[in-house]
Amino acid sequence: MPLKLPFHTSISDGLYPSRVITVSGTVLQNAKSFYIDLCTESDIAFRFTPRLDENTVVWNTEIQGVWGTEERDLPFGMPFRREHSFTQATETVPLGIRVEIICEADHYSVSVDGQHLLDYVHRLKDLPAIDRLTVDGDLELNSVNV
């Protein structure tokens, strides 16, 4: 059964190097975009936004209500399509498409379908304060693992 959107959950103990967050779901047929946010109480440390209507992925940070410069330099083509499943690999479900965010000491490493997509240097460096996850947009959310 899909999870209700917007989806909010806490990240116990906040982020730290080697912490992995995995999100799985299906992009809706008429999707324009969706996002995955890693947040503090008042800031968005990392927003990952596939924009299907622009055929790109954008990532950014919002600190004290001000957005930084968007980044969108993908090493390969757009990894998401409408009606495209992205799933968490398990022993019973083969590796499909999944979004995996790994918190490293100085950056986030994001992969889609097991293929590295981007590295994003931390703009908000207080990793333990990043203790919330939000997912919302044009998708059917199946699971989140923090």
Automatic annotation (TrEMBL):
Q: Name one GO cellular component term.
A: cytosol
Q: Name one GO biological process term.
A: negative regulation of type II interferon production
Please report the stretch or stretches of sequence annotated as the Galectin domain: 7-146
Q: Which Pfam families match?
A: Gal-bind_lectin
Does the keyword section mention Transmembrane? no
- Keyword Acetylation on entry: no
Q: Which UniProt keywords apply?
A: Lectin
Which residue windows are coiled coil? none
For this chain, one GO molecular function annotation is: galactoside binding
Q: Which CDD domains match?
A: GLECT
UniProt-recorded name of the protein: Galectin
Q: Which organism is it from?
A: Octodon degus
Upper lineage: Eukaryota, Metazoa, Chordata, Craniata, Vertebrata
Gene for this chain? LOC111817839
